[in-house]
Amino acid sequence: MAILENPTGLPPKSVSALRRLRLVSTPEAISFLLLLVASVVKRIPELGLNPVPVLGAVHGALFVLYMLFWADAWNRVRWPLGRAAWMFLMAVLPTGGFFAEKQLRREEEAGVIAARARKEQDAGAAES
To answer: Which Pfam families match (predicted)?
Structure first.
């Protein structure tokens, strides 16, 4: 194992799966919070607004995307069951997507660093 190589050693497709999940986690969390606010606004008769159907559809689409990307990341990265369950839980908590994004960014960066180290190591071995 090279000195620069990260122990996670994520292949590029795994890093891409983490990136997709990370990029959808924040919009999913924001849409969840907006949906919660919309459900309160709906109950204020003086406003006469019902943004729930629109925000519900947006949040539903983002949640489905999160679940698809979560399953793909779990499959590619080979998370242990506890880690996969934690990332699932982050989707159903109102602010969980923000925490998931932060954790996924760290994991993605570690995978990119490991991939670059492998690439440099392979290039160095090819030169010798």
So the answer is: DUF3817 (PF12823)
DSSP three-state, residue 52: helix
Give the C-alpha distances (Å, rounded to integers) separating 101 from 57, 68, 93, 104. Answer: 22, 16, 13, 5
Distances (CA, A) of 72 to 7, 18, 83: 21, 9, 14
Place of tokens 């459900």: 39
pLDDT in tens, 80-128: 999 999 999 999 998 999 999 999 998 888 877 877 777 787 777 777 6
Q: What are the structure tokens assigned to 116, written together?
A: 């670059």
pTM, full prediction: 0.78
